[in-house]
Amino acid sequence: MATVTFRDETATGKPLTEWEVAGLPERMTVRELIRLRVREEVARHSARPSDCFNGLVRPDDAEAELNGYRLRGPRHIDWERQAEIAERAFLSNGFFVLAADRQVEELDEVVDLTVDPDLVFIKLVALVGG
After folding, report:
1. How many angstroms from the chain centroid is the CA of residue 26?
2. pTM of the model
């Protein structure tokens, strides 16, 4: 069994958040890891509902804020819908995933968590006007 560390960083390498999930298979695809991450962050939000969601991708009907997304009020978030949004965002370069300091590029790429237990997520911010 493996433990993975999910870490968000800025494009300049500044750490933003970090958390671990234990008891995982030794090898998982990038798709499985993104879905796991999204399911975990939605579960954490559901355990302490608020009108702010700090996750990988923006929920439907939410507005981006400096440190997350503003919901119209505390509500249930569908983790499967969020996972679909995250997969599309990955495919359209909305964020990058680094494993062992190399960029993984395919959702079906397998990551060996015994070798690459730290996954870095770098969200890209669209430039205004372009």
Report:
1. 19
2. 0.90
Q: Which CATH number fits domain 2-123: 1.20.120, 3.10.20, 3.40.50, 1.10.1040?
A: 3.10.20
CA pair distance 102, 88, nearest whole angstrom: 21
Q: Where are the alpha helices (DSSP H) in 4-102?
A: 30-47, 79-91
Q: Phi/psi of residue 77, each to 5°?
A: -115, 130
Give residues with Cβ within 8 angstroms of 3, minimum separation 6: 20, 21, 22, 23, 24, 113, 117
The whole-angstrom separation of Cα 110 and Cα 28 is 5
pLDDT in tens, 30-69: 999 999 999 999 999 989 888 889 889 988 888 888 778 8
Task: Assess contact for 24 and 3: CB atoms under 8 A.
Answer: yes
